[in-house]
Amino acid sequence: xxxxxxxxATPAATALDLARLRDDFPILSTKVHGRQLVYLDNAATSQKxxxxxxxxxxxxxxxxxxxxxxxxxxxxxxxxxxxxxxSRVRAFVNAKEVREIVFTRGTTESINLVAQSWxxxxxxxxxxxxxxxxxxxxxxxxxxxxxxxxxxxxxVIPVNDRGELELDAYRELxxxxxxxxxIGHVSNALGTINPVREMIAMAHSAGALVLVDGAQAVPHLRxxxxxxxxxxxxxxxxxxxxxxxxxxxxxxxxxLEAMPPWMGGGDMISSVTLERSTWNxxxxxxxxxxPNIADAIGLAAAIDYLESAGIENVEAWEHxxxxxxxxKLSAVPGLRLVGTAANKAAVIxxxxxxxxxxxxGTIVDQEGVAIRTGHHCAQPAMNRxxxxxxxxxxxxxxxxxxxxxALVRAIEHVVEIFG
Length: 419
Ligand code: C6P
Known about the structure:
By secondary structure, this protein is of the alpha/beta class. The chain contains 15 helices and 17 strands. The protein has a seven-stranded mixed sheet with strand order 4-10-9-8-7-5-6, with helices on both faces. The protein has a four-stranded antiparallel sheet with strand order 13-14-17-16, with helices on one face. The protein has a two-stranded antiparallel sheet with strand order 1-2.
C-alpha cells in the first residue's frame, strides 16, 4: 500500500489515491441524515486517523501508568513514551531543545500560561501589548485580562479589506513601550497567512517579544520556530489529526527559565516544606499534576502521520482545494467571500445576501455537509467586515474536489430556498 506521501504526491492527488488515504479516517465513512458525511469543519477540529487511535489504544492496553513517579516497568514505559512524544514535538517545530516544549491542554491554555506567568512578571502600567483585529478570542481575552490587572494598554493592528494586516500601521504601533506582540500565524476566521517572520523581526527591532498563535498553521504549513525566531509559539493537537485536550507551548529556554510557575502541585516542584517550595526545572515547572499522557502520545502519532504525508504535499493539495472552492463559490449568485488575502490557507469564509449563516449551516447539514457558522470566536474580525457571522468551510488533507462540489450544490440549494 502506498504511503500517505506517495498518495498525495501524485499530481493533484487523484480520486483513487485520496480514497485510499481517506480509509485511514474511519469517521469519514459515517452517514449523517442518511447522506454521506462531507466534513469541512477541520479548522474547528480535524478527524483522527487509525494510526493515532491505535497508538492510544496500545498505550492504554500495554503502557498505562503515571509518569515520572514509579520505578516499576509500566511507569518507565509510560514515561519513555510521554517524553518521546515531547522529543517528537521538538523535532516537528524544530525547537533547539526538548525542554522548550511544555505540554498544555491546548492553544488557549498555552496563551493563558504566558499571559499569567510571563505577563504578570514583566508587564507594568504604561506598557503596551500589540495584537491584531483578526485574532481568535484566545489571543485577545488573556491580554485584556493582563492589561486590566496591570494598567498596560492593548494596541491593535488594523486589517485591510482583503483581511491582510496593515504592516505600515503595525510599524507605527511598535515603540519602546511595546512589551509583547501576540499574533496568529493563520486566521481561523479568514484564512489569512500573516507574515509572521517579518513581523517578529520588526517587533524584535523595537525590543518586544512575540507570541505566535499557531493553532491554524501547524496542520497546514511547515513551522520552524528557530527560523521564525518566535519567542513563544503555541498550538493544539486536535486541529492537526491528534486528540483533544493536548497542546503545546514552545518558549525559548531562557524565557521559560525566568518565568515563575503558573499552577502549583505535584511534579512542578523540586522540594516542598510547609514553609516554602522550590521549583522543578523547565518544562516540568509548568506541568503541575498528572499530565495528559495518552493524548501527548497520540499527538506524537499524529505528527508521525502528518510528516509521513509530507506537510509540503498537504499544503499543495489544500491550496488546490482552496483555489477550486474559491472559484466555484464565487460563481454562486449573492455569495460574498469574507477574507480574500493573497496568501491564504485552507479556510473559506462567506456570507449570502439571502440567508443568515446559521440557516446556511443548518440546511447544508441536512445534505450531509458539515461546516461551521457563527463568529468563529473572532468577533472583532466579524465587526471589521460588518457581518455578525459567516459560514466557513475549512479543509484537511483528506478532503476532495467532489466534497467541494457537494458543498457548492448544498449552497445553491440554500439560494433556491431563500431566493
Ligand atoms: N479555533 C475554530 O473553529 P483551542 O480551543 O484552545 O484548541 O484553540 C483555540 C484557538 C486559538 N487560536 C486560533 C487561531 C484558533 O483557531 C483556535 C480554535 C476553532 O476556529 C474553535 S473556536
